[in-house]
Write a structure and sequence with these properties.
Radius of gyration: 22 Å
Strand order of the largest sheet: 3-2-1-4-5-6-7
Number of domains: 2
Distance between the termini: 14 Å
Number of helices: 14
CATH superfamily of the largest domain: Glycogen Phosphorylase B
Largest sheet: 7 strands, parallel
CATH class of the largest domain: Alpha Beta
Number of strands: 13
């Protein structure tokens, strides 16, 4: 008999939903009876229905809603779900309460650290004793959550979120002329919605240590890049005319595909979607030695790992890759193979199914 699962996720048409979409479709193709509870406005309501996946077009709007709890509880009873798989805090709180006293296993997803046992609100969500399994997207998050799960650390397991190289095969690099950059330049890209932990100032400071003759141009992509502090750092840089603030871009894949190097200078990071996308696009990466970044990039094999918060180390890595096109090509090729071997959609789906089967036995 097929395993019966309800997935509650905020799946929309955005790129960030793509792994969750492929997980739903992949599990369905493997014979698991997957129903989904997603926002009514999502374009995937129609797509999932056409694939034979039952959709409940509702999304929890509050952290605790009696109406939502009762709806989920009703569906568990009607559809005889064996598992409810919850992908965000609102879903976790409402879903775990709805499951109380019912013969259904509760699985929650966690994609970041930053949650602590001494925060009472954490015990309503990811640390809730009613959760049977906590799927973390990286070893870094798993190890952090195991420390917070004081009494049952074994509940926290790891399944890497997957991507498919095929999603990016039709991406065409944006012409350099459209960016105002010479054809012979070495382009270094960084994508972030700027917060302190993204470490963007350290990338700007790294330009203070670069050889001024190096034909390097820096692209800063994402919201908040034009902050006053960043602008002041850029103004003091010998590369100030070669640092381009692009801000938010809808064509971010095309911009990254035009880059020779991608850099994630974060001070804290889990499994970075931007790094995964750059790897899928065949762009060699420089990342900080923290969190899930060191799981993504194998140092000296698929990219370079540098000390976090160290502008000089960033500069050294940029110079090394800028001066060695053969190394860039080698790292890029290995990055693509690494995504296929370790961070694939197939691995994500098969590992999720294995844990579904394990938790029910």
């Amino acid at each position: 008999m097929a395993i019966r699962v309800l997935i509650i996720s905020n799946i929309t048409d955005s790129a960030s939903s793509r792994p969750d979409i492929e997980l739903v479709i992949g599990l369905h193709k493997q014979g698991i009876r997957v129903d989904v509870m997603i926002p009514a406005y999502s374009g995937y309501v129609k797509i999932f229905n056409e694939l034979g996946i039952m959709v409940i077009p509702v999304q929890p709007l509050r952290k605790l809603s009696l109406k939502t709890v009762m709806l989920i509880r009703k569906k568990i009873k009607q559809r005889n779900y064996q598992i409810i798989h919850l992908f965000n805090t609102k879903a976790i709180i409402n879903g775990s309460i709805a499951a109380i006293g019912l013969p259904v296993k509760v699985i929650a997803y966690r994609g970041a650290a930053g949650m602590y046992w001494y925060d009472p609100t954490a015990w309503w969500s990811h640390l809730n004793p009613g959760i049977d399994l906590l799927i973390c997207n990286s070893q870094y998050v798993q190890q952090h959550m195991q420390k917070q799960l004081l009494f049952r650390p074994q509940k926290a397991i790891m399944i890497h979120k997957g991507m498919d190289i095929a999603w990016f095969t039709d991406v065409k690099p944006i012409p350099r002329a459209a960016l105002g950059i010479p054809d012979q330049a070495i382009i270094v890209g960084c994508v972030a919605n700027v917060r302190r932990l993204k470490g963007v100032p350290n990338l700007i400071k790294a330009t203070y240590h670069l050889n001024p003759q190096l034909p390097v141009h820096i692209l800063l992509i994402g919201s908040g890049m034009s902050s006053g502090s960043n602008l002041r750092l850029i103004e003091s840089s010998p590369f100030k005319d070669k640092i381009h603030i692009l801000g938010f871009r809808k064509d971010v894949y095309e911009v990254i595909a035009a880059c020779d190097i991608y850099i994630q200078p974060s001070l804290s990071e889990s499994l970075s979607r931007s790094v995964m996308e750059a790897m899928c696009l065949g762009v060699p990466c420089i990342v900080s030695d923290i969190g899930g970044l060191v799981e993504l990039v194998a140092h000296e094999k698929s990219g370079l790992v540098v000390e976090k918060g160290n502008p000089r180390a960033i500069a050294t890595a940029i110079e090394r890759l800028a001066n060695d096109p053969g190394l860039r090509k080698s790292f890029a090729d290995e990055a693509i193979h690494r995504m296929k071997r370790i961070f694939s959609v197939d691995n994500m789906v098969s590992n999720t199914r294995k844990w579904y089967e394990k938790i029910l036995n």
